[in-house]
Please model this.
Amino acid sequence: MGGEDFTALHEINLRVEPKSFMSFVGPSGSGKTTLLNLIGGLDTPTSGDIIFCDESLGGMSPDQRASYRRENIGFVFQSYNLLPVYTVYENILFPFLLANLKESDVRDRVMSIIDQVGLIPQVSKRPSELSGGQCQRVAIARALVKEPRLVLADEPTANLDKENSYQILELMLDLNKKFDAAFVFSTHDEKVTKFVRREIGLEDGYVRWDKRRNGDGDFE
Amino acid sequence: MILGIAWKNFYRQGVRAFLNVLVTALTMVALIFMLSLLNGFQVQATRNMTTTDMAGGQYRVPGFDILTPTEWEDRTLPVPEVLHALSATDKAEVLVLQGQLFPNRRLYPVQLRGIEMDQSLLDLPLSGLKTYGSQFEDAIPVVVGNRMAQRAHLQKGSTVVLRWRDRNNVVDARNVRVVDVADFINPRVDEGVVWVRLDHLRSMTVRPSEVSWVAVSEFVGSVDGLEFNTVEILMADLLALLKQDRRNSRILWAILMFLAGTSVFNTQILNIFKRQKEIGTLMALGMEANQIVRVFVLEGSLAAFGAVILGLVLGIPFFMWFQSVGLDVSHLSASTMPVRERVFLDFQFFEIMSSVCIVVVLMIFVAWWPVKKISGLDPTMALRGRGIT
Model:
């Protein structure tokens, strides 16, 4: 910031297991989003590396990173980031178009996930015609429709009210069970904490704690 | 896939896309209008000079200079037979001499211009003189233009004293009667000019069959005693003026192009600026940089193509309407520019094509350049809206 070098993350060394449902928590500026962006290949680390299924992101070209995101990652953004001129259906179809698949071949899969997120009545609506909760459902459906190995959700409940937040979290938990994707959140929303099975605390770019739930559902 | 996405992105922007296209189309129409109007002004000026004065050139008495009135009397010669024999549609004999009018007892130096009545080469409103015979009676019939009448306080029917010097250096004076105040489209044959029948002027000045020049439809070869002046020579001052005007119009064109470019650039860059997050989202979803660039370049191309089509739709009826009414430039009648009361457009293919091409290329460039820049950054920069600031 202001032209000065700023180290956002220090000595991070962690492993995300398949099918995990975990969160990075911490105050603003602690490095949650940066860590999520690094894992998602949206940002490149100045030092260190991210290994995804034995493949180093550091050695990838920008196009290879784009391919990595397309094939393996689903993103859910705080402000949804839906394509504004597309309908619900088209937004969710979009990842398939990027993979050069024909609409006719994937229509059923798109409609199936729209059904799972409960947006069948809104299928032809554009994002501007939807509520915040509905937009986030579309974003989740778009992130999951290609069944990625990893879903990265940056503050997914930050723009939602309490009721919608719980609905979205329950939906993601449900989808985590149905799909094989691991879910990683960045959040400072305490509601999220109730749902995750693992919580990594970040502060000033350092990992301060890494807690997992035990058999009783408590963090240890 | 890319074209489908670009097309969807373009037409689904709705009013925003339409306004973008509309602004660009109007810019193109305005550019073409301005350039064509300037062309029309210049073409009309040269055409009016040709049809009312220069024709296809003039055989002049050597040394004759319209700007040196004191020598006019010395620069007359009998019209050579080869020119006199030309048909009335191909030549007009003209005799120019000095004279002084005395309207309201004041002296008003004038150019006495005698012209054949049966000529049809030049388009001059001299029908008022045709009704008179070759012999004048008590007053000599003359025609003056609107500007001349206004300056000298003359009107149709006015009788004033005219003084002149004949070939024998005898000063004569006689009443002239203004038989018509005519509307000359060329101020150069109006202001300070008193039109007389050629036979009358020759008789008055004892210069039978003499001329100052013979305007011809085209060069008919060398003629003994006279030298041929091409239209370019005769209109040298006007052409120089128009050349300067054209230089100025090029500067104006450059300024207008700059303004148009700025407008297009501003609209497009604002569009891209607002869509940085969208670009970041496309990158996050796994779209490659070159694919994103192609989508936006195609969108820019569609907008440019739409602007050309809309420009045609708006421009053609507007230009057709304008050609039917023209632009009233009667306020310029006080100037010496030989323009009609109304100016019409003169379209130059090269100018139109170059203007349209520049706007189109600019639109595509502005769609390409910022997106190329953004797509080369980490997606987070675009997602945060910091790709271009």
